[in-house]
Amino acid sequence: MNLLDTEAIDIWKLFAEAPVFSRYITIAGILALLAPLFLLRVLPFLLATIGWILNLFAIAVADLLVFPESLLSSRIRNRRKTLPLLIYAYGGALRFLVCGGDSIARGLKNLLTHSLRFPWLPPKHWLFGLSLALLVSWIYQPAMKQLEAAHQDYIIRSQNHPARRTPAQFVGDYFNTIKAENYSTAWTYLSPAFQNRNDYNSYTDWWRKANQGDLIVNTILPRSTSNDTSEVDVKFQYQGKKRIIHISLRLMLIKTSGRNDWLIDRSNELNFSG
Fold first, then answer.
1. Residue 5: what pLDDT?
2. Which of 18, 57, 117, 189 has its CA 20 to 30 A from that of 8?
3. Is the model's pTM score more than 0.90?
């Protein structure tokens, strides 16, 4: 169990760690497939269904409203009187309601029928081009990352002057930053490779839990130091749910380029007790 290297494997993380260009192509491909499906299938079907429901509602409302009009007209005719113009206007409004609902339903149904004539899948050559671009980007981007990492490693190892902080001072400042609950700054103490192996939210959650248990650093002991690497053993403890948790880690440091300082590149757990 490596307490700093927290690697939770899930689909989203695998997607998030893909090359940026590959992610863009994947998202664009998904949208290109779903947009025609939505516009040519789902949306017309929903509109036609809504139009059919509205038409049924209009007929039901008209049937309910026509009953009192029919009853009133029958009584007036039985008395051999002329129907008032209001009755004719009322009947015309009901006919307009029914005819309007029927026209809307027919129009939306025709829209669905027309949309079904068009294929929603893109042409095969378009899908082939998308797949080829995705494959090339997936191969090309990691190669560029490896070249960049190798160049950065060369720059780090070419620095022969000492860092501005000793390894023990650097590790002490790292834990002081964590104890101050400044987790975003503590994250910058990790090398880019270390950050890529970890999830930021899991990292901050773990140290936040340790801080809630009164995190105490017992010892910081440098082991070996060269121009560009160093090893430091650190022991710390915090209060768990039932007992005090004691942890010993060996931190592998590398010297940065530009800032002339250290970064935590790896961590190995020496013991874990609690």
1. 44
2. 189
3. no
